[in-house]
Specification:
The complex is a heterodimer of chains A (about 110) and B (about 120). Helices cover about 0% and strands about 55% of the residues of chain A. Chain A is mostly beta strands. In chain A, strands 2, 5, 6, 10, 11 and 12 form a six-stranded mixed sheet that branches. A four-stranded antiparallel sheet of chain A has the order 3-9-8-7, with no helix packed on it. In chain B, the strands form two sheets. In chain B, strands 2, 4, 5, 6, 9, 10 and 11 form a seven-stranded mixed sheet that branches.
Chain lengths: ~110, ~120
């Protein structure tokens, strides 16, 4: 069975500071990995995804993530955050098999303060 | 590409009433998923369709829940005899199924969700 652990439920940070949101996964098969962002009372928007190839993936809004197979991690980073990055961030895994549904972590609330 | 749309955005209902939500996926997407998201949690998979066929149901989907996708386009999710524990955000997502290089389900597009409050 697959699972996702987001190690921090809340991350407060000052504007223009760097941020890292941590994600670890467990799976017995090769996986696809995703980060989604959710603004209040909205659906989820894809930030970035790892399917194969280069372990460093770049996404929208200046975010990037690094896939580390030995540590089963997929941490999300941004070198300088903005107030508008305040939102909830979800890490998700998919086995890529016939079912294709996503398994989500519990989310990390990023609060960017001026 | 108008994205995934869900209707209604908000629904308040009394306990014991039936409710129905609608999801319109991206038109060329043959896979459609329903998820439920409760406060402080990530979305949890409920069920999915490949075209009009419902292929998998989570154990979260009690017998009070039913989903349909009659013509392989839009889908409905009905909850009968609602309970307060059904209060949640219900999210719909669609995927192309196979991407341009033959990989399966590589990107899910989500709707805005329907927030259900059972009072």
């Amino acid at each position: 069975a697959q699972s996702v652990t987001q190690l921090d439920s809340q991350v407060p940070v000052f504007e223009e500071a760097p941020v890292e949101l941590r994600c670890n996964y467990s799976s017995s098969v090769s996986v696809y990995l995703f980060w989604y962002v959710q603004y209040p009372n909205q659906g989820l928007q894809l930030l970035l995804k790892y399917l194969s190839g280069s372990t460093l993936v770049k996404g929208i809004n200046g975010f990037e993530a690094e896939f580390n197979k030995s540590q089963t991690s997929f941490h999300l980073r941004k070198p300088s955050v903005h107030i508008s990055d305040t939102a909830e961030y979800f890490c998700a895994v998919s086995g890529g098999g016939s079912q294709g549904n996503l398994i989500f972590g519990k989310g990390t609330k990023l609060s960017v303060k001026p | 590409d108008t994205g995934v749309s869900q209707d209604p955005r908000h629904k308040i209902t009394k306990r014991g009433q039936n409710v129905t939500f609608r999801c319109d996926p991206i038109s060329e997407h043959n896979r459609l998923y329903w998820y439920r998201q409760t406060l402080g949690q990530g979305p949890e998979f409920l069920t999915y369709f490949q075209n009009e066929a419902q292929l998998e149901k989570s154990r979260l989907l009690s017998d009070r829940f039913s989903a349909e996708r009659p013509k392989g386009s839009f889908s409905t999710l009905e909850i009968q005899r609602t309970e307060q524990g059904d209060s949640a955000m219900y999210l719909c997502a669609s995927t192309r199924g196979i991407d341009r290089v033959g990989r399966k389900n590589t990107e899910a597009f989500f709707g805005q969700g329907t927030r259900l409050t059972v009072v």
